[in-house]
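Q: My labmate handed me this sequence with no annotations at all. I'd like to see what the chain might look like in three dimensions before we decide whether it's worth expressing. Could you predict it?
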Amino acid sequence: MRKVLYGMVGLLAFWVVACGPPPAKLQLTLYYPYGEDGKTTFSQIQGFRIKVSGASLTDGSVSADFDSASGSAASVLSKIECSKEKDTAEQLDLQIQGLDGAGQIVALGRQTILNPCGIKRELSVFVGPVESFSALTKFEEGSTVPEQMLQERAGHQIRQLSDGRLLIVGGMTFDAQGGVGDVSNRIEIFDPETGKITDGIPMSEPRAFHSVTVLRETILIAGGLKLEGSQLVSAKSVDIFEITSEGLTKKGSFEMLEPRALHTTVITPTMNHFLVFGGLNYLPDGTVQMSQKWEIFDSKGSSIGTGDVPAEQQRAWHSANLLGDGRPFFAGGMRLDAQGNFEALASTLSLQYTSDDASVTLLPLPNSLKEARAAHTATRLLDGQIVVIGGMVPEAKSFLRPKSIVGSIQMFTALGEDNSQYSGTLKQPRTFHSAHLLEDGRLLVYGGATGPNSLADRTEIYTPNGLILDPEPLLVTQRKDRFLHAGTVLLNGALVILGGATLDPGGAAPFVALSRGEIFLPRPKP
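A: Here is what I predict for the chain of 526 residues:
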């Protein structure tokens, strides 16, 4: 454990002029990656530069140099004052750049501070190497220590709340054969301002491969897989949570018309309702069915409408995005064939809503995927284009076992049309991976499985160039090779990856679930 004088730049006291007296005091403690990684990062830094921007600034931006030895930065924020009442949505973006002897940025610390006016804040700011992954750490009692979730989990979900905190929801572990082991009903909360993970309110039942959807202050957690004894079954329940000034509160639970897992939930065009679509229904007798209905709910759990999905459009473990006009864009996935075996899909689908969101018409699209795939990613770029990456063709009887891995990349326009000008291929074919849009528009592809017993060992970062992606991605080594993980880009632009599974180093079982995570600090925007 590295003590604070080794992993810290001292205690920097900044003063923000608030709307009225007394002024708010903003204290920042800088800390570094744990152990030898922190030593390497700290040894490269010869000086610091701090930049501040946000709605609270009177002149638009402020920057100043300061010396790490003296920690002198008392005047850096002296020009900031609140132009609104303290309870309005102010945002302060703080960037601390670690410079080498040539003045190049080698490390970065970033913090997005919501509602800074009139509030005393004591923040810990993680300073890590730029364009590389560091083990997730926290600052606690004068030391930099590893941080991890309170339990191991894979097949979980992460969603960001309006205040910048992350919800880590559900998940599972593995049994000795590599199948689903224990399933969790726990919600944990990661606070980027402190780097700490705490326990939250539990769900009504355990779930993995569920959906978590945030609509303003409402969080809808629907379906998923759970265990009844040793039998894997799909959940029918939906939990509703709400973000309040006191924190996260549970508002209630209700049931869908049919159980489902490996489905998707999207926000309707009116931005008032939740549409639940697709999925698998694992029954207590061990048989599996496709989910056959779509359902629409309001933020209180009341049913707005439901309808049937024809057999040819039923799907699970597909991707869901919103097109430029607000309609959903479903791509690929898998379904059961006439013999009850899983098959991958290449079709794409959209929906046309009625004006009140109470009903939809299914609209099969003419532009299919060039390769059938499930368990892929589909990410919407800044210009509205949708990029479909990787995926798998599942084995006949197991959604967790790939028969083959897909390595192609396909792009669709903001209207769901195939971009025939582009044809791309991953450096490593992968499934059970994640893809993340960085704030500068680049697309980061992390982790995943490359085969039944092999994992992707590099992250690929692609730069969009008009209607194509540059063919040569930046390759970055991951801290841990993992799949079925979850991650998101924080308000400050950093990417956090948590949990997932990796190959069991002890060899007792095929896979082992993980509790730790890592953080990627992208280069600062110009």
